[in-house]
Amino acid sequence: MTFAIVQALLSHWRRHRLQLATLLIGIALATGLWSAVQAINAEARASYQRASDQLALGLYDTLRDPSGTIAVDRYVALRRAGWQVSAVLEGPVRIAGRTVQVMGVDMVTYPALPAMTQTEQSDAPPDPSDMLTAPGRLLATPELAEHLKSQTELPPIVVSDAVPPDLILTDIGVAETLLNRPRQISRLVILPDQPRGVPALSEIAPDLQRVEASAQLDTQRLTDSFHLNLTAFGLLSFAVGLFIVNGTVGLAFAQRRAMIRTLRALGVSMRRLVWMITAELTLLALIGGALGLVLGFFLAGALLPDVAATLRGLYGAPVDGQISLQPEWALAGLGMALGGTFLASGHALFRLSRMPILTGAGVQSWRSSTSGQRFSFLIGTALITGGFAIGYTVEGLVAGFAMVGGILTGAALVLPYFLTLALSVFQRRARGPVAQWVWADMQAQLPGLSLALMALLLALAANIGVGTMVSSFRLTFVGWLDQRLTSELYVTARDDQQGKEIAQWLGPQVDAILPIRNVELTHETGPLFLYGVVDHETYRDHWPLIASSDSAWDRVLTDQAVLINEQLARRADLWPGDMLTLNAEHTLTIAGVYSDYGNPTGQAIVSMQQLDLIAPGAETRQFGIRVSPERATELAQALRDRFDLSRQAVVQQAAVKAQSLAIFDNTFVVTSALNVLTLGVAGFAILTSLLTLWTQRLPQIAPVWALGLTRAQLARLELLRSVLLAALTAVLALPLGLVLAWALLAVINVQAFGWRLPMFLFPVDWAYLFVLTLLAAAVAAALPALRVLRLPPADLLRVFANER
Amino acid sequence: MLLNIDKVQKSYPGGRPVLRDVSLTLDHGQTLALTGESGSGKSTLLNLAAALDSFDGGEITLDGTALSPLDDRGRAALRRQSVSLVFQQFNLIPSLTVGQNLSFHARLANREDTGWSAQLAERLGLADLLTRYPENLSGGQQQRVAIGRAMAVRPKLLLADEPTGNLDETASANVLDLMLSLVAETGAALLLVTHSQDIAARLDRQAHLAGGHIV
Ligand SMILES: Nc1ncnc2c1ncn2[C@@H]1O[C@H](COP(=O)(O)OP(=O)(O)OP(=O)(O)O)[C@@H](O)[C@H]1O
Ligand SMILES: [Mg+2]
Fold first, then answer.
1. Which of A797, A799, A804 should one mutate to test binding to chain B, selecting the residue with the greatest count of B CBs within 10 A?
2. Cβ(A544)–Cβ(A559) under 8 Å?
3. Quick check: CB of B44 below 6 Å from ligand 1?
4. Global pTM?
5. Within a 13 Å sphere around the CA of A291, how many CA atoms are in the beta-carbon half?
6. Domain segments of chain B: what residues?
7. Which residues in chain A have Cβ-Cβ distances shorter than 8 Å to B79?
């Protein structure tokens, strides 16, 4: 008996292969896009975790000098006093066109690094003495080792899988040479077991600052918001994919009503049928989910390199450019496929289980759904209102996403109501009988198409919203770069002494030399970098202040006030007039807030004298040089030659800008890719809806054809209908997209990155998207239209003949 | 001569010829009943006369226009202007109201006469149903709308294919009476396909289709 039922149920799919394909594609797309994002996130997080583990980061308290690096003598003194500390020197270096992080540790005293122990346990362990004696050894991943192979001046490389990507691990002595920072130490690691009776650190090293292990900036926290953004996008794509599933399952169930009625009449219980259909849906969800996983895996593989580049550029976070398959990920993906499929079919299944044995077999008539439309309008309005209410009353990124989610879902739900309204207005205004029919017919088709149109609305709104955000951000960013990067040249000296020499040499040749000096302090919101500036129009005229009090610069330069970046302002809720505590002795009034995009940490600016007071002896290794632009290139070369500086040590403004913009553009490659994919999915949803509606189409068009319209006319009208509905949806999507853009710029960005952006409008982009939408709608309707065109008259005539 | 069917042949792809050699004429104002067994080709012949489908041989002339040289567009124009049709079922456009359905053909043919339409609605008992949609009408009501729509154009020729085939006896008699009186009144010619000898007997002439011929 079971077998017979299975056969009967499956026969439906044999007869409706396209429907089956659509259903599987819908599940696969939803799962695929979602899983791709999850894979990217998981891979990135796994990379951070691996790097932390391999380098034992965040395990020990550390000592730092707020004014810069620690001299080797201090290290020696501390150890003599009995303190078990170990030195680390780290920094970026550019080798063969690629920026690589160098981490040099004191191999003798440093605690066992997993990266080292694993390498020592490998088949070809490096000789420990080789590591310590000149020229030393560099530990790098096979991929990085390959890249470094051609660099003959480097010490020999030991290949290891146990080091993070893009990092060279080596002895501190080797690192000094590589980084060109002799006898310097970035931080001291305080080892866990300290002997009793050592003098207190506050006595022997009052200038060094102890940073708790837990307070150290970790990559995971920094990048959390970036990953949350990606997740939100994945969820949106997932939802759009589910619209396809919902539409197809609904139609398949409607078409199977007759068969199910027959089965019940033959004595199969409803319970049993529901169980069998549930099993069938589970099977379909698993097949579609598996296809989705394959899709997601390749998609993630294609997108990950860009994401990795972004994370490295924006946060210095180490991420492998390669995706690896993890069983949890596959299981979660299949779980999403199952959950999504049942979410999308629950309603249809429920209705089926409630179907009285004697109802008609026909596809539900369309007009009965107007009450449903009113209901979803009410729910939609409630969701939109709720979304705004949450957005205005609750703080935090999750609240921001809840608001966006509420508004988007709500808007999707009210869409059919507005479309019906618009269509009936058009119908009333229509002159000719054909026009009147077209509008009426669109209204009649709406219930079958509304899910696809909702998907289109969401995809378009996401496109407009995210597009507006990215373009607004880019515009702001470019303008901001122009303000911030006013110096024609940026020079980094090897040390304080060379810095002085360079300044002396340059003095008579250039318009101004602007020393850039900074120290790292701690603030309750995290690390705080304090910069000192000298009085120059470069700052007074160009610095991008977004909030300021009167004569802000005058007060800063006369040591009375401080400027802070937007991230710090928003995180600590500090604004002009408030006080900022820099350390125990120094508290200054905030005179202004400046925008500081792309920087995850807090920053503040005081006058150079003030910086000397706060952190005496901070060294000046960086300078901005003002010189006429035509001389910049020549001067850069002269500096390099005279002071034996590397290419990276003397950079021109244009190069910095180009690099910043490249990082910026990378950041949004993923979002725009997801955007385009979502739009594609929505277009596909329209196509599948039109195809599934096809069965109901003949009785609609046959009478009109019989009364004197040609099939070619009808085919054109099919196209027109789809295009008009898409156009109407697009018109409604515009305001929604702008609301979304506003939410992203003014709420989500502030919560996620700490900056608020001005919103700009890009009508040309909208026009482009509009045309794209119409094209997609026309393409989606092309197949049904072609069918109408080719329809044999006999098929149309069958509508009128009695089927006895 | 209004309708001249001359030695027409028709077969469907992959099937035996349905019409082998059919000739039939119909004059202005004349009524003709076409009878025959199920599957004898009555509907096929009516559809050919209505310029809905093409035929394989012979010629059909409708109000002076030969049908075989016409393309899709020409046939559509002819349907719009020269004939009215009533089928057994699904005559009405589901997305339009009864009122819109009633005037649809007349407006398409640019021959709308609101006074006449109102009168038709009144006489067919549809005046209270004008804002309803077809799916909310009974079978008899639907067929009356179809007849109203057909007559609103004041056609020269009305082609009706078992218009009462789906109705019970009372409804069927009522619909038929209305149709015949309207036809008589407007002077239209009628080609009516029917199974019923009683109905056939009420028309001017009768033709019987069998084996692909008129007998
Ligand atoms: N589209 C078609 N394709 C193939 N054969 C067809 C098609 N339409 C009709 N036929 C065949 O042509 C023959 C005549 O059909 P038609 O519908 O004209 O008969 P009818 O006399 O109207 O029958 P009824 O009284 O049942 O309505 C039948 O054998 C039918 O099977
Ligand atoms: Mg017939």
1. A797
2. no
3. yes
4. 0.75
5. 15
6. 31-40+71-214
7. 706-708
